[in-house]
Amino acid sequence: MPTAPREIAQIAVACRDVARATAFYRDVLGLPLLFEAGGMSFFQCGPTRLMLSLPSSPDLAPPGSILYFRSDDIAAQLATLRAGGAQILREPALVHRDAHHALWLAFFRDTEGNMLALMEERPAA
């Protein structure tokens, strides 16, 4: 039986304007820019690399899937995003609580119309 993949190595995010999206992900979201090549930009986000590129076909045009970024302080990070001009769609809200943790989510859009989210898991009180 084949083994399952270990982890996600790279995620592609389709953009209408790669330069504009690069500025957002670098300057507003604060992800480290690794390199730019062939009209694409690559960022490091934990163990996963994030690639910004033009869609390879019209059916892959943004907006696409939702990326959930882990946060240690969702309110502070959302304030930074707001100050950077991000379109905030939903303020932090408690969406789940169990015996181990409380899950908070907040949603926003990048410059390309992609919906993104911040996710904070707090220990149960």
Detailed description of the structure:
This protein is α/β, with parallel strands linked by helices and 125 residues long. The chain has a single domain (10-123), classed as 2,3-Dihydroxybiphenyl 1,2-Dioxygenase, domain 1 (Roll). The chain has 2 helices and 8 strands, in the order βαββββαβββ. The strands form 2 sheets. The chain has a 4-stranded mixed beta sheet, with helices on one face. A 4-stranded mixed beta sheet has the order 5-8-7-6, covered by helices on one side. A hairpin with a 3-residue loop joins strand 6 (87-97) and strand 7. Pfam families: Glyoxalase. GO terms for molecular function: methylmalonyl-CoA epimerase activity.
Key words describing this protein structure:
single chain, 125 residues, alpha/beta, 4-stranded mixed sheet, 2 helices, 17% helix, 44% strand, globular, EC 5.1.99.1, VOC_core, Anthracycline_SecMetBiosynth
